[in-house]
Amino acid sequence: MYVVAGGSLLLAIVLPALLSRWAVSAPMVLVGVGMLLGLTPLPDGLPLDPQENRAAIEHVTELVVIVALMGVGLALDRPLAVRDPRTWGGWAPTWRLLGIAMPLTIGAIALLGWWAGLPVAAAVLLGAVLAPTDPVLASDVQVAGPQTGLEEEVDEHDELRFTLTSEAGLNDGLAFPFVYLAILLATEGTLHAFGLEWFGLYVVLKVVVGVAVGIGVGRLLSLVAFRSRSASLRVAERGESLLALAALLAAYGVGEVAHGYGFLSVVACAMTFRSAERSHDYHAAMHEVAERLERLLTLFVLLVLGIALTRGLLDALDWRGVAIGLALLLVVRPVSGFVALAAFARRTHQTGGLDRGQQAAAAFFGVRGVGSIYYLAYASGEDPSLGLDWLWSTVGFTIVASVLLHGVLAVPVLKRVGSLDRG
Fold it and tell me: What is the topology classification, in CATH, of domain 28-38+51-418?
């Protein structure tokens, strides 16, 4: 266990510099190293079996996701104010991917799962688990971090990278209603028995509460950090960047206690905090802390995932799981994403406007990752019938296929659409 943790820390330090010149991503290397380690007796004692170690897997991946979401929220420079409709248009591609592409993806994968012989609840869960893109593994196609400094224009991010980053930050929380739909189907029966409750509580109320809590926590922390009357509380002046960790834990905890979606609370908190004193260098310092912790945790999880792949995680995988995983990555996500982005799109000279090449790239780069593992572990804890070995094998295969496919193509595709030099 300590060998794996130490190896992850070492790789987190050296891999970014080593791989900067090649079209090879750190996740690709970590999964490969993990698979090789799994063939040796070295990593004995790791909690690899998802059935026996479901709770540990859930909590570790949960932490990885909320740390990544904090970093995403701090990196998004483009203003968004609920009470200012003028700010909504610049996020048009994000709304389209969330409101059109994600439901289409969930429905398509659920149908494929049902075709593969899954019960309805498990098929819906498969769609909900695999639909959201991942803020953890998509760093190669996301914005690099917050722009700061009074002399900089903070709203001049590359449109493609901004779209992928904002989508990954928001769709993790918005996939939860469909995870709950699968849980309710497994525990309560048919949809007509709980349809109104599901829509009112899980689709509307918990989303609103999660966002509202995040905004409230973000405003409170920004007032303290930047404008408190007490010098000891104005941590921004001292550059105490560990506030990022306090903020993500507070936002997530309060969001969950208030029965909202904590993932949305974390993103909303980070974005709200980012909107205060927007040009202050403190945002970059906080983002760096979140990014470093995310990198360490992610590489550890990927190393363990690689070990699990050669220690039995794929034992239940069959041609149906392979077909569904590849269909998601090569057909379902690209088609649904392009349909969502291409129809009545904003013009390229407008904020939020993507040209055809960027639309195709944004549709293609739906990276799957750690969030999918978390959702599956969470649902399995709510109802054991949803923790099928076949689901774990299919999700594990899809994540690895996404890591390889998107990792290899990130550099050449971004270079082709003119986004590489701005990341």
Answer: Na+/H+ antiporter like fold (1.20.1530)
